[in-house]
Specification:
With about 80 residues, the protein is of the alpha+beta class. It has a single domain, classed as Glutaredoxin. It has helices at about 1-5, 50-60, and strands at about 35, 40-45, 70. A three-stranded antiparallel beta sheet has the order 1-2-3, covered by helices on one side. The longest helix has 13 residues, at about 50-60. The radius of gyration is 12 Å and the shape is globular.
């Protein structure tokens, strides 16, 4: 993910996108898991291909990737 953010120039801009590794998120299946904050949208199967979709569609485009969303506010952008 860090590489993808760097490639898109999102890591160095003020107020840009940050990637933080965490320990277990207590989700027993569908991993790896990605959480977009402050939107509070949780995504399953955060593979390299799916991270591209999440970056392009949600982070840059403002629309939730509905097929991968496993949790999050119902009133989030694009839902």
């Amino acid at each position: 993910m860090r590489k993808k953010l760097k490639e898109r120039g999102l890591a160095k801009i003020k107020g840009g996108v940050m990637c933080t590794a965490v320990d277990c998120l207590q989700v027993s299946g569908g991993g790896p898991i990605a959480v977009v904050w402050p939107d509070g949208i949780w995504y399953r199967e955060a593979t390299a291909e799916n991270l591209d979709r999440i970056l392009d569609q949600h982070i840059l485009g403002g629309k939730v990737v509905k097929e991968l969303r496993i949790a999050g506010p119902k009133l989030a952008r694009g839902v």
